[in-house]
Amino acid sequence: MKTARRQLNQRTAFGFLIASTLIVVIPVLVIIGIILFNGAGAISWEFLTQAPSQAGKAGGIFPAIVGTFYLMLGTLIIALPVGVMAGVYLTEYAGEKWLTKLINMAIVNLAGVPSIIYGLFGLGIFVMAFNFGMSLLSACFTLACQALAMTITTSREAILAVPREYREGSLAIGATKWQTIMHVVLPQAKPGIITGAVLAMSRAAGETAPILVVGAAFLLPRLPQSLFDQFMALPYHLYTVAAHVPGVPDATIWGVALVLLVVVLSFNVMATLIRLRTRTRRYSL
Known about the structure:
Layout: H1 2-39, H2 45-49, E1 52-53, E2 58-59, H3 62-93, H4 98-110, H5 115-129, H6 136-160, H7 164-172, H8 177-206, H9 209-212, H10 234-243, H11 250-284
Antiparallel strand pairs: 1-2
Helix pairs in contact: 1-11, 3-6, 3-8, 4-6, 5-6, 6-8, 7-8, 8-11, 10-11
């Protein structure tokens, strides 16, 4: 009797888990399917390689694609080293102090700050105070500030997940604490750190509000020539053609959305492959 009741409870719990998963997965698949269905017709070689014309009603989105990649790369270059170093300090050096707990709480709260606040912060600090102007550099620093909360949190959790025995074994054979961190802890934490970096990059690729006030432009017939030039980006271009330019074909709007979706998903898939390869190599040693 008890065995039958236990099996029933397990099946009921398993059914709730499947239902919860489907509730999350099905809407995502529906959204992806709608974007694919409506946007596939707009995808062509000219659409991907030409600059926009007629206020986005004609031409392509090549400058927006390149600007998005520049933005993601700049955000990664700025946020990843700072986030990893902060995670190392908080886990390996700071200790359990009241100040450390306060910093951790502040980092968690930063993840909930609205993105437009980061945009206004970037406008006041990077555009005006540092005199970077409305530029790609200002946008990269602004999005890096926004990405730091996620990068630090994931780096810290990945480092904490490394077993204490690894550190003790390294120290026991004469390695210094810094050598242990560089050659033992960080390699073991690499999959989690990569995951956090890619999540931060993916969020940067889809942000509109911060870049709106620090350097994104709607129509630029050329690519940015330096870090101090303005740039185009897919999310801002999508927002503008969908909300502020009358007469834009629906296929063009859906096509921009599809390209943005592919860009974000491609980075997520690439990060997953890197993470799996890193794990496989780690376990094979």
